[in-house]
């Protein structure tokens, strides 16, 4: 991971924006910042998202007659092992340079701590496969892989296979998202804080960008 691409993540987590694009910005404003190279998808008439290359922005609206309202953004960092810099938005690459194929959480956390930007651990419904970390001031969350990918179909106990380029590794950042509010964090702590480790439950998540 180059210092330049690492600086991108630090900037996002510190500011709660992607090159200044906020999770509440309109589609036109985000496109003005990140460029017209995106894929647009929709759930229905009330929700849609645009994939700008690793950075995805999500919007919702009350009805087709109402304007889109920004809901959250997610950096799909887990795409990097497959595509490297090619998976990253060209405007971001122009600003920050080459991106490595992995983002290690321990390195990111150390750099944030040196800059006075702490991350709090939050109970996560996806544990123990993932852990969730939160920056209170910017309301950005970071999801981290805590278990290796399974050995594959029919692998069986004790089976081994050659590691593929895109396999997740323990300690890799999986995604970065905004916004996760203090109310959501409190809900997560109340709902999952006393849950037994490893319990296979992934219930619905309250409204927000985690």
Question: Which helices and strands occur, and which strands form pairs?
Answer:
Blueprint: H1 3-15, H2 27-34, E1 39-44, E2 47-51, E3 55-60, E4 69-75, H3 80-83, H4 90-96, H5 105-114, E5 120-122, E6 130-135, E7 140-145, E8 173-178, H6 182-192
Antiparallel strand pairs: 1-2, 2-3, 3-4, 4-8, 5-6, 6-7, 7-8
Structural features, described:
This protein is α+β, with helices and mostly antiparallel strands and 210 residues long. It is built from six helices and eight strands, in the order ααββββαααββββα. Strands 1-2-3-4-8-7-6-5 form an eight-stranded antiparallel β-sheet. The two termini are 24 Å apart. About 10% of the residues have low confidence.
Fraction of helical residues: 25-40%
Number of E-state strands:
8
Mean pLDDT: 86
Shape: globular
Descriptive key words:
21% strand, 25% helix, 210 residues, 8-stranded antiparallel sheet
Structure in a nutshell:
The protein is α+β, with helices and mostly antiparallel strands and 210 residues long. It contains 6 helices and 8 strands. The model is unreliable at 150-161 and 196-205 (pLDDT under 50).
């Amino acid at each position: 991971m180059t210092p330049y691409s690492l600086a991108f993540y630090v900037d996002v987590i510190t500011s709660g924006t992607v090159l200044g694009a906020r999770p509440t910005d309109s589609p036109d404003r985000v496109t003005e910042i990140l460029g017209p190279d995106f894929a647009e998808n929709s759930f229905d008439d009330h929700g849609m998202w645009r994939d700008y290359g690793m950075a995805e922005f999500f919007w919702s609206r009350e009805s087709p007659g109402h304007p889109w309202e920004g809901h959250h953004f997610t950096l799909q960092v887990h795409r990097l092992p497959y595509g490297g810099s090619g998976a990253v938005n060209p405007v971001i690459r122009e600003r920050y340079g080459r991106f490595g194929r992995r983002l290690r959480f321990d390195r990111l956390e150390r750099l944030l701590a040196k800059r006075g930007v702490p991350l709090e651990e939050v109970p996560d419904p996806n544990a123990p496969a993932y852990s969730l970390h939160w920056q209170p001031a910017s309301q950005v969350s970071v999801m981290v892989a805590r278990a290796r990918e399974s050995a594959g179909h029919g692998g069986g106990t004790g089976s081994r296979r050659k590691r593929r380029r895109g396999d997740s590794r323990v300690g890799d950042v999986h995604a970065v998202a905004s916004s996760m509010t203090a109310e959501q964090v409190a809900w997560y702590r109340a709902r999952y804080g006393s849950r037994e480790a490893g319990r296979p439950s992934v219930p619905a998540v309250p409204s927000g960008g985690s």
